[in-house]
């Protein structure tokens, strides 16, 4: 299903979010091999990821991977299976290498350079390895857990409870006035001039649409209507799934930025957005847009290039 199918009437995402791209087969039955993935391992390639979520990218903007058999005849107990494509299995391992030198990049700086296959592999590896780093003990009894299902679950050594990778849903909404202005805001911790659309985490017992309305009102003090879904993107920092929405609001309503959370909020004309897109990351009228690797960029560009 394409992003265009999701979007419905009005503007759409200008293209699929870059970290939503993936081509490998990740069916669950691939994780249930009786030999612990040994057959898959022999044909496999291993992606090394450091503690800061960086992988090595070569001069051709491809992920650098090594033959799995270089790490042993059977799957490393710390390896996670990312998927299979054209009879080649792809795995990820955490490396103690600090990844600080040239060629090692994280998803924010390198995700937009990668092709569909590599973008999906690195995104999955970062999220899955990060979960393992923080799920070493059972949430019920506190005993140590071990990796099972080629890295897609952990089993408690005490109560034998299985735990699975967590994903935290978060909404991100482009609010516009139904004409030529979009509502953007900036957080105090962001780089100078950086503005983006509004976002927040979904709470227990809350629908996605209710979350959109609540977050917009909490962050900038306006009520929105016409909430509709656009598309989604994994955002493994550390384990979010960004669910993109569009909505409209009254441009004459006073903006009340949330104290300590929103430093500034303002309505921005379409022409300024288009100029900022052309500027390639340089500020225009004190405005710098989110990087192209984010779903926020795809939402803003989709809105700006579609006439109301």
Automatic annotation (TrEMBL):
GO molecular function annotation: metal ion binding; NADH pyrophosphatase activity; RNA NAD-cap (NMN-forming) hydrolase activity
Pfam hit, one: NUDIX
Any one annotated GO CC term: cytosol
Cofactor(s) of this protein: Mg(2+); Zn(2+)
Segments forming domain Nudix hydrolase: 165-291
Name of the top EC class for this enzyme: hydrolase
GO BP field: NAD+ catabolic process; NADP+ catabolic process
EC number: 3.6.1.22
Catalysis: reaction(s): a 5'-end NAD(+)-phospho-ribonucleoside in mRNA + H2O = a 5'-end phospho-adenosine-phospho-ribonucleoside in mRNA + beta-nicotinamide D-ribonucleotide + 2 H(+)
Keywords: Hydrolase, Magnesium, Metal-binding, NAD
Family: Belongs to the Nudix hydrolase family. NudC subfamily.
Entry-linked PANTHER family: NAD-CAPPED RNA HYDROLASE NUDT12, NUDIX HYDROLASE, NUDC SUBFAMILY
Protein name: NAD(+) diphosphatase
């Amino acid at each position: 299903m394409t992003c265009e199918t999701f979007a419905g009437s009005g503007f759409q995402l200008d293209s699929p979010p870059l970290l939503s791209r993936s081509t490998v087969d990740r069916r669950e039955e691939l994780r249930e091999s009786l030999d612990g993935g040994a057959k898959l391992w022999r044909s496999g390639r291993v992606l090394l990821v450091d503690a800061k979520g960086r992988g090595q990218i070569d001069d051709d903007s491809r992920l650098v991977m090594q033959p799995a058999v270089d790490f042993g005849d059977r799957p490393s107990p710390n390896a996670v299976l990312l998927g299979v494509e054209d009879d080649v299995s792809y795995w990820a391992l955490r490396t103690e290498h600090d990844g600080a030198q040239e060629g090692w990049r994280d998803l924010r700086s390198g995700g937009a350079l990668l092709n569909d296959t590599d973008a999906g592999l690195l995104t999955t590896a970062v999220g899955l390895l990060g979960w393992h780093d923080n799920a070493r003990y059972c949430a019920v009894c506190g005993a140590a857990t071990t990796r099972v299902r080629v890295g897609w679950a952990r089993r408690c050594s005490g109560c034998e409870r299985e735990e699975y990778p967590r994903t935290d849903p978060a909404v991100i909404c482009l609010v516009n006035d139904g004409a030529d202005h979009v509502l953007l805001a900036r957080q105090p911790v962001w780089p100078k001039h950086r503005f983006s659309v509004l976002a927040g985490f979904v709470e227990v017992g809350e629908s996605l649409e209710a979350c959109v309305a609540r977050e917009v009102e909490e962050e900038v003090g306006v009520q929105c209507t016409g909430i509709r879904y656009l598309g989604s993107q994994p955002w493994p920092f550390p384990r979010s799934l960004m669910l993109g929405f569009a909505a409209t609001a009254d441009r004459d309503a006073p903006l009340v930025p949330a104290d300590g959370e929103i430093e500034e909020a303002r309505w921005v004309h379409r022409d300024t957005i288009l100029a900022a897109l052309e500027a390639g990351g340089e500020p225009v009228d004190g405005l710098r847009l989110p990087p192209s690797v984010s779903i926020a960029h795809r939402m803003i560009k989709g809105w700006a290039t579609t006439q109301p």
